[in-house]
Amino acid sequence: MKQATPQPVRRSSLSSLEPIDTAPFRKPSSARFVWASLLLVWLISLLPWRSWPPAPDLLMLVIVFWALNEPRFVGLTVAFVFGLLMDVHDSGLLGGHVLTYVLATYGAIVLHKRLQLFGSVVQAIHMLPVFVVAMMIPHLLQSWLMGAWPGWDWLWSALITTALWPVADILLHLPQRREDEINSGAA
Amino acid sequence: MQGQGHGTIRLFKRGPAAEVRLVVYVVLALSMMVVDARWRVLDPARQVVAVALYPFQRLVMLPRDLMAGIDNWTNAASLVRSEKEALQSQRIELAQVATHAAQLAAENQQLRRLLGVVEQVRQSSVAVEVLYEPVNAFTRHLVLNKGSDSGIAPGMPVIDEGGIVGQIVRVTPFTSEAALVTDERVSVPVQVLRNGLRLIAFGGNASGKVEVRYLTGDTDLKAGDVLVTSGVGGLFPAGLPVAQIDEVRHDPATGFAMAEATPLSHPERYRHFLVLLVGNSDPATESESSSP
């Protein structure tokens, strides 16, 4: 992805002349792959590895990633449903994960146009405040409702989740990338 | 919240739909949080989702359960093998049987002593296994692999061979959730074993500890004292070990003392516990305890 996105930016004046080059990158991911990746990450999130407090929220990462890249399939409703499932699994207050996922997804929808101009690292920098705010608001509300402050581990969680954005970008765009490489190899 | 200003400008293409949905979902999430924190109205909805979630939870836990199953199976095989050897040796020499029986008797006695907890409380109980430990910064809970189908109901005590582990707080048909005694929201009526003093133990501020708060200055409580359940309140049967006092701290500012104790049960070490079916087996004590 790193080499992929700067190219169209640099050649933006020429892009009207060479639409063939940018076509493979704009090719949408298949619905089956989007849903399969969501389901897989959700199942992984049911495993006990998240008991480490600063563990990244992979499910949020993937939901937000697809909300940004494939808004046709993944939006606020998907974020809401998966948030509810995680709330029940974690036996927390209903609505905590829901609020986090919905806010983060909305952040991606708002930044949608702007983020398409950048590579994954710059996208991650943009997403950091979104993740932090999306995680902070439910944490503040929960600690108000429960009368206890859980500490700052969630901030690490947001940081690690952000750091994994470029990795998610590489992994979740693998099917397209392969097609693109095949195409460029053939040409 | 943070993107609201941008949203109205940037998103005219998909604008109202996303904003309206955001507002609806956020309001829904907020009201769910407030309602869930104050009342138990949402518990049926939570149960429905939990039942739908259950097959997936079992699915992802399958590798671990499979390993446990294989472990059991190999143990069973070795058990059968050793038994066969024992039978052969018996056939060879009848005299050996007598010594063998004596050995078994001793072992049986030891096992009975180990199971003493169950005999003492004389309650019907259900053996449960930890399904998983939910990730939650605010609570210390365990999700167990049996639920209301096995007769488990909220309020029932969970014990291991050391004593009280916690209390059932939520049930679904196939799973139940126990709050540990170290959870801040659990309180257990206790008695000091040495002098019979009645107190109430709370989950501690320090993780993995139990506290006894608001002791008057002259309270006879020392480090090393063992707290057992007093039976007051009716839910916990009397005589189950709860915790051992580490230290008693006097606060000169308030005039009260506070004691910190370490639980005698080990929920972090084992995976099998017993749930005492208190309400089911003895409805008389239940109604008695709820009336005052």
Automatic annotation (TrEMBL), chain B:
UniProt KW keywords: Cell shape
One Pfam entry name: MreC
NCBIfam families membership: mreC
Keyword flag Nucleus: no
Keyword Secreted: no
Function, in words: Involved in formation and maintenance of cell shape.
Similarity section: Belongs to the MreC family.
Record-given protein name: Cell shape-determining protein MreC
Domain Rod shape-determining protein MreC beta-barrel core: 130-276
